[in-house]
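Deliverable D4.2, example record:
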Amino acid sequence: MADFKPKPRWIKTPLPTGKTYHQTKAIIENHHLHTICTSGNCPNRAECWNAGTATFMILGDICTRSCKFCGTKSGKPLPVDKEEPKRLAKSINLMQLKHAVITSVDRDDLEDGGASIWAESIRLVKEYNPKITLEVLIPDFNGEEKYIQQIISEKPEVISHNLETVRRLTPLTRSKAQYDCSLDVLRIIAHSPSRAKSGIMLGLGEKKNEILQTMQDMRAVGVEVLTLGQYLAPSDKHLPIKAWITPEEFKEYEETGLKMGFLFVESGPLVRSSYHAEKHV
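Output generated by the structure prediction step:
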């Protein structure tokens, strides 16, 4: 088993149910869209879908990387679907969202890492939904600033890129991404009109001083929004959970983060990158 002991009571989540949940699910399925809610087996799916929100995943659902914490499929992706940006924009309109989150798999097979599809997706979502605000959770694009700037030029309100874990555990946890490269990506974002956001998982064996150092590294490059959540192993083949972080410990990190100067800190066992994302604009 990946979990070294039974889940504590504070990890339990309600079963997916409710009219709005099923309506949201139907729109996503009927328009052949992917969501990290499903691919990442997010524990907040019931809460978010019942609120009529979702985190959409573009560029397919097969990632070219195979990070040891992630439940998204990895392998050789299908060709880029040129109609996906328009379907996404229309679906968000049908859902009548005021705020949406878009993320993607890594597409190292593409020359631009998918940046052109990213830019078109943001452009069309704003065109079909003039009053919407957007958060985009982007890959590292191997640190290529010209591709990151393509996304910045479309002016999403929040641009997020996750460090995922502390420096020491990065080589063990992430298949290709590097800690300093991710910091460089965040620095580029922070120097743009968009708000810079990042997050890490806890429970992989990191130490408290390493967590605090990672938070300081984020602030040093200009990150304004921080998320911290409990790592949950997607399967027995993924990295095992080394520790259950208590709600009290998460609260302590939240208070410390605010003292460091973060504008928003979402810190809790079930917090994920897009949790309460509408507050971060």
